[in-house]
Amino acid sequence: MSTLLAITVFLPLLGALILFSTPGLDRRTARQLALMITLGTLALTLILTLAFDPARSGPQFAAVDDPSAPAPAPNDSSHPAYGYRWLDTGPGSGIRFALGLDGLSLVLFALTALLMVPSVFASWNSIDDRPALHYALMLLLETGLLGLFAALDVILFYVFFEFTLIPLFFLIGLYGGPERRRASVTFFLYTLAGSLLTLLGVIALVLVHQQFSPNHTLTFSIPELTAGLRSLPWSEWSAQATSSWTSPQALIFLLLFAGFAIKVPIFPFHTWLPLAHVEAPTAGSILLAGVLLKVGGYGFLRFNLAMTPHGAAFFVPLLATLSVLGILHGALTALAQSDVKRLVAYSSVSHMGFVTLGLFTLSQVGLEAATIQMINHGLTTGALFACIGILYERYHTRDMAQLGGLWSRLPLFAFFLILACLGSAAVPGLNGFVGEFPILLAQFARDPVYAILASLGMILGAYYLLMMIRRLLFGPLREPSDHSSPSPNHTPALDHHHHHHDHQPTSSSIPPLGWHEIAGLVPLMIGIVAIGLFPQPIFDRISPSLREIATGFANPSLSTPSSTALTSPTPPPALSRPSTTTSQTPSSITLAVQDPRR
Amino acid sequence: MPTTTPQPLVPLAREWLLIAPELWLALWGLVVLLADVAFFRDAPSARRARFLGILALDGTLIALLLALARVVPSPLGIELTNQDYSIFGGTLAADPSTAWLSLAVLILLSLLLVLSPTWDFTDHWGEFFALVLWSTVAMLLLIAAEELLTLFLALETMTLCLYVIAALERDRKRSSEAGLKYFVYGSVASAFFLFGLSLIFGLTGTTRLHAVREALVGSAGSLGLEGNIAGSVAVLLVLVGLGFKLAAVPFHAWAPDTYEGAPAPAASWIATGSKLASFVAATKILAVALGGWAAQTGSPDTPGWALPVALISAASMTLGNLAALSQRNFKRLLAYSSIAQAGYVLVGVVAAGVSRDPARAVGAVLFYMVTYSFATLGAFAVAAWLARDLGTDELDDLDGLGRRRPIMALCLLVLMLSLIGLPPFAGFFGKLALFMSALETGESGRLSLTWLVALGLINSAISAYYYVRVLRAMYLRPARGDVGRSLPSGVFWPLTVGAAVALFFGLIPGALFEPMQAAAVPLLASGEDPRGLSPETNPFATRPTEEDAARARELRRQQIEQGRQRLQPGTPGA
Predict the structure, then answer these.
(1) d(CA A425, CA A347)
(2) Under a CB-based contact definition with an 8 Å cutoff, are residues A418 and A387 in contact?
(3) How far is B474 from chain A (nearest CA, A)?
């Protein structure tokens, strides 16, 4: 199975290389090839998902260098040297090329493979200029993202993490809107600046582990580091530090935080996001919002929360505040937008605020809900950006003032948009509810004030999304008069246009949804409804990995650190106790309801 | 005499055979010069350039084969597997470090010789190629130098040749200005450097690097420079000289003007080959000879050269990057970029002085310098192409290159990303290795030099801004102006080889790390087995006996101790 995982990760790269080497390929062939590759990757991912054993903790499908070594027992905490030696770094296992999936990475891995399909369909007719290059960049990005979620080595993770910047820079810069140059350069520099600090944090973790672990092993393996760093006497070191801000974990936490906070993005670091989302082509927006933002959340879980739990506990009041500010700021700014793409971009800031709010409850319920919310956001925002792409292809505008009453013109589009909006607004029965509600519950148990403020953001979210539906879909039909004038950067669907012109000569040249647009949206819609109705399979898969992370906060040494108690008014870790002592994997929602501490 | 080492048939001949590439190249310089005078005197300049370029390249390829024989077994029998081996009375090293590094320099030289004739910038082609070859001979000797005087002579020969080729472009005053500035700064810096070396000789009584080290490292480990005024002066003077050769702030003022004014092939040789050799020399002087003065063992922020070098490194990367932000000229941009890159590499040099595992730090320095040199040579090839076809080398001239010349733009893209230090390119692993070796220092368990590494990473982010400007010009701006003539192979090869090196060693970094690591070990050679003093490792050398050396060491140590006591704060003016 380890070979299958490697093939899944590198199949898109193969497709990208084929497309790169045939730059003159026409649109039809290029998009079909890209679709075949993405569907193939999705099929392989499906096989991996079915083969995944949810009962086991620790990475699966990982190659082990020494074949004679026995396979790890289901609850074995020691980790063998996964993968293959990549770079020798003296004694120890060195930097390794190690891929593997645990429950947490599996769901995000699958989300990536799934969202690639609507991304290809969204570019179906809208990319005329150098289509082969466009799809090659998309596939390159897919390999980067899949590899990032599957990496078991910190350096390998970082390599994939940075590598995603390059294709995205070109996707935005070459195929984006009128402000694409500024958007791509801003995005590139902003993200790079943060991730370099993350690299420093990662190196610091590796070296601290080497210095103080009993065997002085220099390891870059994520599972080994996570386990090894847990056993170090962090609370003693914190007690020696002059202030909590300079305790070692707080410093390393901040370094790691820098890169991931910009990716997510957490409130004051979000300024790159609206620009990049609005200027990116539709496929870029779907992947940016759907997967790239999740990289930040994933990084928080894998590094900040799993490897520096004391630092996380210290910063919880600050981070929860920033999350709530992000929720409210994003929602209020979204309210003021008349450009729908901009509105959805700001709604991303708001919804990702919920994700970080869930993460920084430091309880298992919160972590699980945040992970589900990441997937939800990927599906709903991906669907919303795909819908906006459909709209823009037809009207060359995204201004709500110029559009209205589209229900009568595009009924199927209206259905998809409404479903995605309701999912995003956390209507019970759809996916958003499954994520946001437990987040609020977990947060309520920690500190009710934050939960109340955050639920205000939820109400605002429902308001601006419904307002968007009302202005776009209801009322008298309103269309821009000059919608057939080609825009300077997009020359979308010219053949499509003429084709349908013959059928509807009297009414308008606006075509109904094509098969590729429906095919791109239907899987997302199925996901939105399925997660809303029956989220348990996902919870089953993520909870073993997240329980491992949450035990870091149940550590008794953490609940009474002399320095942390001074500055944080609410001792955070109490909530996670019940969930960690329970041996089964019960539904998190019921657990949270049973535990209203305050 | 112990018989542990194999006895060669004719020892002297073997020593000469071991420096065959250097000798051959020196001779070939004469051949090129004579061929120019004898056959091409009346030929048009472009034709002379082509023929002489091919002639010089032929000689270099033969030298490359000879150098290859020092790495892999061959009928010549000069494969250098001995970890620690010196020749000519201990003045030159003949070990894996010289073998691998000379190979890298000769490959760079071949690319340079392919590049140079593509652009007809001078009438003095014979002189140009001869001087390039001779400067390379000096670089190879500099890499091998095991003794301060040899090192100084090699360094001066190298820069003397480079002064001239920087000024060789006809019709442009900027070129003469470049050569003159380089010369004036360089000669002053050399004077300082020589003065510093003479002080070191005065304090230790020897010019052999390892003997100097022996004299300075006490039995209780390094003591640093605390209270040692003469030593501090010597270190400062040496740093002035080295700082100039490395174009490190604050000794960098010549670099932007020289790089911009000199013809691109000359500038590229100053920025790559010369810099690579100078860094090896700097590592040898600082980490090997003056290892005892780096800092007190285990605490890198005590008085010693580690602290000033760290400051120079910090200043270089910060000032280099900030100044590069506003450049519009491509070559000037590369000049500031190379100043900043020197700053990163100096982090590794500091680490080599204070780390517990100096070989790893030196290995990182060598890895970084080799990959940097290939990347920079490729970038200068683009500058040469711009100057040849468009007459200017402004950044705006790269506009729309992605459409006009996709392959070329792709290669330049790889080089720029590698210079930023972005994975999966070689620059990333170079930086990773440098910074990890710097963080590994210190026995107290404290991560010292963290500030320097943090500054290095912040600087990488700053540098991304101007490297991305190159990408933006190539890919995000519409093409303008003339498409230019077809891409000459002389530009194609340095560019693609540079990009291939950046990509290959980014995907498989071990392939270069292992040789560089193997080179770093003998380059440092442990204190217990000093290269110049052990007859076991070199049966041919004529050198002072063990007793002589020990006596001299003891004498010097007493003198240093007396000097230190005189300078104790309690007895001022004694």
Answers:
(1) 10
(2) no
(3) 11
In this complex, do B423 and A208 lie within 8 Å of one another by their Cβ atoms?
A: no
Q: Which CB contacts under 8 angstroms, 24+ apart, belong to B62-69? A: B62/B24, B62/B28, B63/B21, B63/B24, B63/B25, B63/B28, B63/B106, B64/B21, B64/B103, B64/B106, B64/B107, B64/B110, B66/B20, B66/B21, B66/B24, B67/B21, B67/B99, B67/B102, B67/B103, B67/B106, B68/B103, B69/B20
Residue in A with minimal Cα distance to B462: A193
Q: Which helix (H) or strand (E) holds B214?
A: helix B209-216
For A344-472, list the strands marked E by DSSP: none
Report the predicted TM-score, pTM, of the whole model to 2 decimal places: 0.86
Cβ distance A414 to A377 under 8 Å? no
Task: Establish if A211 touches chain B: CB-CB under 8 angstroms.
Answer: yes
Measured between alpha carbons, how far is B567 from B574 in angstroms, rounded to an integer? Answer: 8
In contact, B216 and B293? CB cutoff 8 Å: yes
In this complex, the residue of B357, B447, B513 whose CB is nearest that of residue A207 is: B447
Domain residue spans in chain B?
Answer: 11-524
> Cβ of A87 under 8 Å from any chain B Cβ?
yes
Q: Kindly state the tokens that stand for B550.
A: 């020990």
End-to-end CA distance of chain B: 49
Q: Which of A184, A189, A207 sits opposite B440 (nearest CB)?
A: A207
Cβ contact A162–B428 (<8 Å)? yes
Beta strands in A65-182 (DSSP E): 84-87, 95-97
Contacting residues of A for B435, CB less than 8 Å apart: 200, 203
Question: What does the alpha-carbon distance between residue B122 and residue B54 come to, in Å, rounded to a whole number?
Answer: 17
Tens of pLDDT along chain A (598 residues)?
Answer: 788 899 999 999 999 999 988 878 888 888 889 999 999 999 999 999 998 888 887 888 887 766 555 555 444 456 777 878 888 776 667 888 888 888 899 999 999 999 999 999 988 888 888 888 999 999 999 999 999 999 999 999 999 999 999 999 999 998 888 888 899 999 999 999 889 889 989 988 888 888 787 777 788 888 888 888 887 777 777 777 667 666 778 888 999 999 999 998 898 888 899 899 889 999 999 999 999 999 999 999 999 988 888 888 888 889 999 999 999 999 999 999 889 999 999 999 999 999 999 999 888 889 999 999 999 999 999 999 999 998 888 888 888 888 888 888 888 989 999 999 999 988 888 888 888 889 999 988 888 899 999 999 999 999 999 999 998 888 888 877 754 444 444 444 343 444 444 443 334 577 888 888 898 899 999 999 999 899 888 888 888 888 888 887 775 444 433 333 333 344 344 333 333 333 344 444 444 444 444 3
Angle at B299 between CA B297 and CA B301, to 5 degrees: 125
Distance from CA of B352 to the nearest CA of A (A): 16
CB A598 within 8 A of CB A448: yes
The answer to whether B423 contacts A180, with C-beta atoms less than 8 Å apart, is no
Asked if the Cβ–Cβ distance from A203 to B436 is below 8 Å, we say: yes
Name the residue with tokens 């033969």: B62
Question: How many Cβ atoms are within 10 Å of A68's Cβ, its own excluded?
Answer: 5
Q: Among A196, A205, A251, pick the best mutation site for testing chain B contact (most B Cβ within 10 A).
A: A196
Pairing of strands B86-87, A95-97: unpaired
Tokens of A580: 């960690």
Query: Residue by residue, what is the 3-state secondary structure of B399-420?
Result: CCHHHHCHHHHHHHHHHHHHHH
- Cβ–Cβ gap B510/A87 under 8 Å: yes
Q: Which helix (H) or strand (E) holds B87?
A: strand B86-87
Q: Please give, rounded to a whole number of angstroms, the shortest distance from the CA of A97 to a CA of chain B.
A: 11
Query: Chain B within 8 Å of A23 (Cβ-Cβ)?
Result: yes
User: What is this model's ipTM?
Assistant: 0.84
Kindly determine whether residue A173 and residue B472, on different chains, have CB atoms separated by under 8 Å.
yes
